[in-house]
Amino acid sequence: MKLYMHPISTSSRPVRLLIAENNLDVEEQVVDLMTGEHTQDPYAAINPNKLVPTLEDGDFRLTESSAILKYLADKFELRSYPKDLQKRARVNERMDWFNTQFSREFSYGLIYPQLFPHHKRPSDAVQAATLAWGKERAAAWLKVLDKDIIGPNQQYLCGNEITIADYFGACLITLGKLTRCDFSAYPNVSRWLANMEQLDTWDSVNEALDGFAAQLKDQPFVAIGD
Description:
By secondary structure, the protein is an alpha+beta fold. Helices cover 52% and strands 7% of the residues. Helix 1 (12-21) packs parallel to helix 3 (65-75), helix 1 (12-21) packs across helix 6 (164-173) and helix 4 runs antiparallel to helix 5 (124-150). The radius of gyration is 17 Å and the shape is globular.
């Protein structure tokens, strides 16, 4: 089994974290996003979306981080994706929430337009308006995450046991490290992230992200909490 990925990729990191934490027998192959390898053959023929990650299991190929997490959890019968119908539905709900409501505003409305030229808006006015909207909407979703999804009485997104939703959501929200987002106004979110950062392999999986953040430390950003 092989995972095509990039260590900084927000969508690759959750899968890599699940693999590392559970010591799964999955080979990793880096697809160099910085040189555009993902847009060129042979990788573009493997994943026509020209994105990472992609999982190969024999002749079977699977794209999309959320789907790969579920596949691996099922294949290796991991407790982090419960079999109980309602518990599993709750995990799916949390993952869908991150992948749509939150990521739409946080990733694509606030973070990516500041980091990647192909996401930057065509004029300064449009860029500023995009960032202001993305910041406002992301902050609103963070309140939902803090008060209604996590709340004061549970350790993880779906209760007091870690699930694949936590791998997925934590790696997405820590994208904010790159623009120096401050989540201290959301104490339950901060507590949950602290729980995730205590995982044995968290530091090694996120080493590349931390290195990239260090390279950006002198750049000005619009960020949550500034």
